[in-house]
């Protein structure tokens, strides 16, 4: 995270609020989503390490109901 306020969630885990300077590491193959918090912006740098496999496997988009299921305090 470099700017703004974001949210991320690992499959089956809680929604986490992320802020500038927060490092976030997702393991290879770990299903997750990340994006800006509602009514906020988010700027981040993503680095993928890959040898002989795809660096990322894109799954289906997060629905509004999944995204808004929990409203963590982002102020």
UniProtKB/TrEMBL annotation:
Entries under InterPro entries matching the protein: RmlC-like_jellyroll, RmlC_Cupin_sf
Gene3D superfamilies according to UniProt: Jelly Rolls
SUPFAM superfamilies for the chain: RmlC-like cupins
Name of the protein described by the UniProt record: Cupin 2 conserved barrel domain-containing protein
Source organism: Williamsia limnetica
């Amino acid at each position: 995270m470099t700017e703004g306020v974001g949210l991320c969630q690992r499959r089956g885990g809680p929604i986490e609020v992320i802020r500038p300077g927060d490092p976030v590491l997702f393991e290879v193959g770990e299903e997750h989503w990340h994006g800006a918090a509602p009514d906020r912006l988010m700027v981040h740098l993503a680095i993928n390490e890959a040898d002989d496999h795809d660096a990322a496997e894109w799954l289906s988009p997060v629905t509004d109901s999944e995204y808004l299921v929990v409203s963590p305090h982002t102020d």
